[in-house]
Amino acid sequence: MRLTRYFLPVLKENPAEAQIVSHRYMLRAGMIKQQAAGIYSWLPLGFKVLKRIEQIVHEEQVRAGHIPLLMPTLQPADLWRESGRYDDYGQEMLRIKDRHEREMLYGPTNEEMITDIFRSHVNSYKDLPLTLYHIQWKFRDEMRPRFGVMRGREFLMKDGYNFDLTKEDALHAYNRHMVSYLRTYERMGLTAIPMRAASGPIGGDNTHEFLVLASTGESEVFYDAQVPDLKLGAREVDFDNRAEVAAICQEFTTLYARTDETHDEAVFNQIPEDRRKVGRGIEVGQIFYFGTKYSESMGATVVTADGSRVPVEMGSHGIGVSRLLGAIIEASHDDKGIIWPEGVTPFHAGIVNLKQGDAGTDAACEGLYKALKAKGLDPLYDDRDERAGAKFATMDLIGLPWRVTVGPRGLANGVVELTCRRTGVSEEMSAEAAVERLAGIYADW
Ligand SMILES: Nc1ncnc2c1ncn2[C@@H]1O[C@H](COP(=O)(O)OP(=O)(O)OP(=O)(O)O)[C@@H](O)[C@H]1O
Ligand SMILES: [Mg+2]
């Protein structure tokens, strides 16, 4: 993309309404525009990151053996009457009537609808296990929408639902989700810690939340200092191997890590004092095992091998896809702007032309742009007729992890400059070497 042809409405001033850094930078970098409280348009740069996050979530769900589908945003109220949640959900649910006075709602989550799909089509234990998920917009009429996309009213969520014959099978599905989530967040450059949680309106006792440590997080968290060092890394995981998956969950949940809702001072105090950490965290996901709560009330049963009929064992598992943009920025920025991890960056590298209109530099930039694209990379070329300082400021604000700077002086020596946004370290090299280096960096992502 060439910046002169792109739509990047960068703001010079700090927007007064933004209280935290991610909200401020998302507005300033022209990623989102608020349309109503907690409701946003995703401008091209924000939309690009959103799609990259979505893609990672999809890939990791499919890797774990889960199957994508798509359910609608609008749901009939009657489904929710069956589970009893139509009345229980309260004011967070946006209720709508259609022209025939039929009661509808904008889905805050999809347990009822997926259970309805299941009961309509699945009848036998032979069709289990089954895990279905979608990535779809949700609406929750939050009392205090704030912090930009972190607590919106309309937000994008991945929600997945497992259907199993036995509790052991359902707990394996729970563990599979935990491990797939660990990899999902790591690919986004995040450390998200699974913490034992309280269940709320979804129901069930077995539940973990995933929290990204950040001083602006809404949850208070208590954890062992060794927990953030745990990494899944590039381990090959066989998601059908129960013992292997369970062992990874064990590894990540044995040390103390809890939110204020489940915190137990007595247990916490058994950790050596210098390892006891108290901080704040952003909830970027949650997994639940809730057994037969919905299958019983909604009649989702299967015939077993001995011919009897039993309600299916279920769980649900959510990732806050749109909230993740905010969480990543909270975890990765400096006073000049965002620093995107390579896994989610909207463009792989920026090209800054120091002397726009100079035939030599223009041609070198064009050549670099084409060479990067030929490697399958997606560069953003700042081809505006602007001062170098303004171009650098834009690149720093929008946070591309790598920048290639091209100017007449360097070209006279046969070099361009490759700069790492995170470290600020610049290196001179030939344009060809810069292309190779970037291709190598992104080969790992
Ligand atoms: N209002 C919101 N705006 C953006 N993302 C949200 C919002 N509510 C929930 N999410 C995201 O969706 C994920 C799954 O939804 P879940 O039902 O667990 O949310 P929740 O526990 O009600 O969230 P919270 O406690 O933050 O209100 C959450 O972990 C979070 O990342
Ligand atoms: Mg939650």
Give your account of this protein's structure.
- The protein has 445 residues and is of the alpha+beta class.
- It folds into 2 domains: 335 residues, Bira Bifunctional Protein, Domain 2 (BirA Bifunctional Protein, domain 2, 2-Layer Sandwich); 97 residues, Anticodon-binding domain (Rossmann fold, 3-Layer(aba) Sandwich), CATH 3.40.50.
- The protein contains 14 helices and 23 strands.
- It is globular.
- Bound molecules: adenosine-5'-triphosphate and magnesium ion.
- The site of magnesium ion has 3 residues, from β13.
- Keywords: Aminoacyl-tRNA synthetase, ATP-binding, Cytoplasm, Ligase, Nucleotide-binding, Protein biosynthesis.
- It comes from Gemmobacter aquatilis.
- It catalyses: tRNA(Pro) + L-proline + ATP = L-prolyl-tRNA(Pro) + AMP + diphosphate.
Q: What structural class should be given to the helix and strand makeup? A: alpha+beta
- Percent range of helical residues: 25-40%
Name of the top-level CATH class of the largest domain: Alpha Beta
Biggest β-sheet description:
9 strands, mixed
> In CATH, what is the homologous superfamily of the largest domain?
Bira Bifunctional Protein, Domain 2
Q: What does the average pLDDT come to?
A: 96
- Distance between the amino and carboxyl termini: 21 Å
The overall strand count is 23
Instruction: Identify the bound ligands.
Output: adenosine-5'-triphosphate, magnesium ion
The total count of helices amounts to 14
User: What portion of residues belong to β-strands?
Assistant: 25-35%
Low-confidence segments: none
Radius of gyration, in Å, reads 24 Å
Question: Mind telling me which CATH architecture of the largest domain this is?
Answer: 2-Layer Sandwich
The CATH topology label of the largest domain is BirA Bifunctional Protein, domain 2
Give the overall shape, derived from the CA principal axes: globular
Kindly give the count of domains. Answer: 2
